[in-house]
Design brief:
The protein has 6 helices and 4 strands, in the order H-H-H-E-H-E-E-E-H-H. The protein has 186 residues and is mainly alpha-helical. The protein has 2 domains: 98 residues, Electron transport complex subunit B, putative Fe-S cluster (3-methyladenine DNA Glycosylase II, Chain A, domain 3); 78 residues, Alpha-Beta Plaits. Helix 1 crosses helix 2. It is elongated, with a radius of gyration of 25 Å. The termini are far apart. The relative contact order is 0.11.
Length: 186
Amino acid sequence: MTELAAFVLLLTFAGAALFANRVAAKQAELVERARLIERIDRILPQTQCRRCTFAGCRPYATAIADGAADINQCPPGGDATAAALAALLGRAPKPVDPRFGTMPSIPMVAWIDEPACIGCTKCIQACPVDAIVGAPRHMHTVIAAECTGCELCIPPCPVDCIVMRPAHELVTETTHPSALLDAVAS
């Protein structure tokens, strides 16, 4: 083997090793990014309300991890979520930016005035957490315990039969054993 061939072979191995190191570093970076996104997503309230301007909590978490969104864009999570995100990311805490909306002082869930419902299914299609049940041309109802209060079902309703009510009233009303017995008896 000539010196030139040996030198080319050495360069080839060195290049391959350098490439392998870069690939390994990139893979480690991607794994760490995925872990960070998961940790951020676990802090978010999972309302999928889109008030943060992203399509849901996971896309918002990804945007935070990538530096494309700030930690204070989640009204449902409030200042506590913004503070938890700040702690996770080693940033200074800041209050939720009011441009993204505010949350009521008590949790709210959607409620459908069933006699007014025309069964159009537009609310079902809009619900990001499948908390509304019903069938076409039949009344719909909200499973209060599953509703996140995102309000995304309200705008598409053509008959305005959906309103927000305090969560504790509706969850108790629909899950209390006496309410179940009354429903069976009637």
